Amino acid sequence: MSEKFVWKRDYYAGGLMVLLGVGAAVTGSGYKFGTLARMGPGFMPVVLGIVLAFIGVLIAGTALGSPEPDNQKFLPDNPQWFGWFCILAGPILFIVLGEYGGMIPAVFACVFVSALGDKTATYKSSFILACGVTVFGVLLFHYLLNIPFPLLRGVNL
Amino acid sequence: MISTALTDLWYGFGVALEPHNLMYCFFGVLVGNLVGVLPGMGPVATISILLPLTFGMHPVPAILMLSGVYYGAQYGGAICSILLNLPCHPPHAVTCLDGFPLTKQGKGGTALGITVIAAFVGASWGITEMIFLAPFLVKVALEFGPAEVCSLMLVGLIAGSTLAKGSPLKGIAMTVFGLLLGIVGSDIETGQPRFTFGITELFDGIEIVALALGMFGIAEFLNSINNTEAVDMKYANVGISDMFPSKADLKASFRPMLRGTILGSLCALIPGTGPTIASFVSYATEKKISKTPERFGRGAIEGVACPEASTHSSVQGDFIPTMSLGIPGDTVMALLLGALIIHGIVPGPQLISQHADIFWGLIASFWIGNILLVILNVPMIGLWVKLLSIPYRYLYPSAMFFVCIGVYAAGNDMFQVGETLVIGVVGYILLRLDFHPAPILLGFVLGPRFEENFRRSLLISRGDLMTFIERPISAFFLFICVVLLVAQIYVWLRKPKVVAEERAIEAEVPATGYSELAE
After folding, report:
1. Model confidence over B115-148: pLDDT tens digits?
2. Residue A154 domain-assigned (yes or no)
3. Closest CA relative to residue B283, chosen from B271, B270, B269, B300
4. Bridge partners of B135?
5. What is the pLDDT of residues B351-367, one digit of tens each?
6. Which of B167, B180, B452, B495 to mutate to test the interface with A (most CBs of A within 10 A)?
7. Identity of the residue in B179, B227, B405 whose CB atom sits nearest the CB atom of A137
8. How confident is the model at residue B448 (pLDDT cuts 50, 70, 90)?
9. Which of A37, A44, A126 lies closest to B463 in CB terms?
10. Pick from A19, A37, A65: which residue ends a domain?
11. Is A24 within the bounds of a domain?
């Protein structure tokens, strides 16, 4: 091991699993553990947590042992911050506008904002797409499938 | 035995041909074919979106429709691989190798025609296998106590996590993670809330639709955005008249088709080995036994016929362990099992006798669905090819709408949409760390039943763990688990040529911006 220590993606992967496993085991130990014959609700979480943490150590360990270099970067080569932001903003707007506005604004905002995330999209193309999906969605889900989601809250349509 | 099976099948046709059921079956295969053609959409996400809409329906049409999406998508997936060289559906990735060269030579139509024939042959064999094998498996499975069920689930979990693509260790980690996610909610025996962190909405557990759509919907969008190239349509003009293969082509692909079918059905019987593995194994085998292996990769019709037949036979065969034992073989089956549970049907050996209408109706609907798909795919091929040119920038926002409204409809609750979003972000992080999310769903669906049976078997044995080894059937399943694990360690330590060869074929498949989630 004379070479320089290199970060590998698998160290993060193993570390994350250890973290999840230990977290599950610690949380699980707050529940009654019981005995093998009469297992309490805490038995499975603790056992599975320990297993997961152990596998996490193995993942990091095999990466340490293997000479092959891996892609050490966690982020992809061309991070799409704006695209990711738009995609995540879509459902958030859906929740907020759906809760306070109703189905029409929720669907429109969700599609419009998510569509803007593509680098070739324009306001116009996103607007047209959002209108189309809204009309289609209202017809299908409100009138055909009758899901309980008011079109516009406060307005009886 | 055969005559009972045929009588039951006759009854099944009666169920499947009821106009209502027939309509939903047709709708299922149509939607399946559609998402199969569209790059970046997969049956898992589609079934999850449709699942909440079936809550108000009778279980029979619901299950017929959801299954139809799965095998319908397999017909569509091949079109994308052959004409565009886009392996956006993992089971059809290997078809690119010979399908696209054929397209470049102007024989894309022939390849598609052979695909449809191979698909029908493979599917027919898979269904026949199900008719005769499932009732037999049930007879064996009725002897099972909780210890056997537990060990069998362990086989399914280990096979599902180690045989899937990617590192086996990471697969097992994901299975355990899925099992932990399955624990969230109130404990069945004591009612103690676990991992709920005081959030009331989590007392019922994580919604399966939210989990599937987060992992296979939102994580997929995050991965593919601005990462996909415009599709090249220059070879993709195929009409119905190009689709009839010549006699020579038919003759050349007849035997590979049969071999692929047999291999696919064998793969389906091992829990955890879905159609993707079946198609790769059969392509490798076909290349190995061919007298002219150098033709493979340059447009050999056998290289299309064999994996396609294998995929379809494996897809239909996948239903055998799911329906007869209640052990799903892959993600889609885990989801269908979840659908059965939501509809109040307990999966397991008693399903066939207690819900004969579902089981035999499903088998009959496979025949009807496959015939419908052949009809859909031959005359309407031009329409499907046109669909290929829809750019991703219109697809994903529309899909996002379906994801949001689908999750909302599952419980008429905005909390679920937020849950999906969080799961999606977690899913993307896992994906970037090379974790494959498919085993999560498997662990999630099997988790609660695994815990229940594990507790029960140890209660019966008064805490004696030896019960799993003392009972012969259970010991046999545990032996398989050990074999699976030892085989993995052996392969990992010795790195035999087998792995290298398989990797070589996998490396040949063109890279795609779409992640391989669309399974």
Report:
1. 888 888 888 998 888 888 887 888 888 788 888 8
2. no
3. B300
4. none
5. 888 888 888 888 899 98
6. B180
7. B405
8. confident
9. A37
10. A65
11. yes
Q: How many angstroms separate the first and last alpha carbons of chain B? A: 36
Report the amino acid identity of residue B32.
Answer: G
Structural domains counted in chain A: 2
Joined together, the tokens standing for residue B439 give 């085993």
Predicted model pTM? 0.84
**Cβ separation of B195 and A78 shorter than 8 Å?**
no
Neighbour tally for B130: CB within 10 Å: 24
Give the model's pLDDT for residue B285. 84
User: For B218, which DSSP code?
Assistant: I
CB contact under 8 A, B173 and A90: no
Question: Same domain for A138 and A87?
Answer: yes
B193 backbone dihedrals φ, ψ, rounded to 5°: -70, 135
Burial class of B486 by CB neighbour count within 10 A (0 to 12, 13 to 18, 19+): exposed
Encoded tokens for A130: 């959002």
Backbone torsions φ then ψ of B277, nearest 5 degrees:
-65, -40
Give the percent of chain B with pLDDT over 90: 6
Domain ranges of chain B: 2-508
The token duo for B68 is 């139809």
* Residue finishing a domain among A36, A65, A94: A65
In a domain, A149, yes or no: no
Pairwise CA distance, residues A71 & B433, whole Å:
10
- First-to-last C-alpha distance (Å) of chain A: 72
The neighbouring-strand residues paired with B416 are none
CB-neighbour burial class of residue B135 (10 A; exposed 0-12, middle 13-18, buried 19+): middle
Q: Does residue A3 lie in a domain region?
A: no
Listed residue (B37, B30, B142, B104) closest to B373, CA to CA? B30
Q: What is the mean pLDDT of residues B8-34?
A: 89
For residues A93 and A138, membership in a common domain is answered with: yes
Same domain flag for A93 and A140 = yes
Answer whether B170 touches A (CB < 8 Å).
Answer: yes
- Is residue B197 a contact partner of residue B481, using CB atoms and an 8 Å limit? no
Q: Does B167 score more than 60 pLDDT?
A: yes
Do residues A109 and A57 share a domain?
Answer: no
ipTM value? 0.88
Instruction: Give CA–CA dist B174/B157, Å, rounded.
Output: 10
E strands present in B112-217: 185-186, 193-194
Residues A139, A112, single domain; the answer is: yes
Query: Same domain, yes or no, for A61 and A95?
Result: no
Task: Output Rg (C-alpha) for chain B, integer angstroms.
Answer: 22
* A residues 52-81 lying closer than 8 A (beta carbon) to B: 52, 55-56, 58-59, 62, 74-76, 78, 80
What span, in angstroms and rounded, lies between the C-alpha atoms of B161 and B208? 19
Which residues 6+ apart lie within 8 Å of B2 measured at CB? B132
Query: How is residue B471 annotated by DSSP?
Result: S
Q: Please check whether residues A89 and A43 belong to one and the same domain.
A: no
Structural domain span for residue A89: 81-144
- Shortest Cα–Cα distance, A133 to chain B (Å): 7
pLDDT digits (tens, 9 = 90+) for B248-291: 888 888 888 888 898 888 887 777 677 888 888 888 888 888 88
B202-225 pLDDT per residue, tens: 888 888 888 888 888 888 888 887
CB A106 within 8 A of CB A134: no
Write phi, then psi, for B433 (nearest 5 degrees). -90, 20
Q: Please tell me whether residues A140 and A97 are part of one structural domain.
A: yes
d(CA B220, CA B519): 11
